[in-house]
Amino acid sequence: MLKTIACFKWVIDDADIRIDAGTRKLVLDRAGYKISAYDRNAIEEAVLLQEKHGGTVCAVTVAPSSAKACLKDALSRGPDNACYINDPSFADLAPAQTVSILAAGIKAGIEFDLIICGEGSGDLYTQQVGPALAETLGIPCITYVNKLTYSESDRRITAERKLEDGIEVVSAALPALVTILPDINTPRIPTLKQVLGAAKKPALNVTLDSLGPAGDPCLKTVGIQAAVMDRKKIRFAADAEGIRAAVGALLKEVAIA
Questions:
Q1: Looking at the chain, which terminus has fewer C-beta neighbours within 10 angstroms, N or C?
Q2: Cis peptide before 175 (omega within 30 of 0)
Q3: Domain annotation for the chain: domains and CATH numbers
């Protein structure tokens, strides 16, 4: 029986982000939250493996105590149970802190054969948590996976890694951790029945008191400003002369770049 952990992060919904025109600062006071898009793929891949090979899927997250709504969303996507590692101080963690807390929570009593993480998170996108978690737990790690298969006979996973210059096929014995790319699958949209049924699934509540101090972050966000795109506002006519002028301007920009 394959025991899989799908890690996910509760992030600000980028559709709700507004930009103050004067200061270029992000306005987040009315922004909602969602499961990171990359982590939806992680949950989906864990459930697909379960549907094919059996076993269990546990959705695990490190989040502030106010983010309990994430459990219903995660469980409605197929996992059997969840582990909610939470504390009010978990609102703005550095990747190293997230790794330390995740590892402590998993070691506290979550059995696993395979851990699946998204390629990165939808906010910081550091791509550090998956590999660092594998290192902390002392298990093999395969990154940038866009196809994953499991062999029940010898309890090994085989993964296709999408690299810049081709596809690499690698294999690892379980237990192991993989980070997956968004094109590995298409996350399902939960039905109303699945959303209602999520409330009945068990969720383990793990607090900081049972894990020990998380420490102060080494990385702090001091400010975020929106990018500015300065346009030259040059208009070209639709006649032959205007088209030639437009092509000439584009070629000039390419030459400068």
A1: C
A2: yes
A3: 3-210 (3.40.50.620)
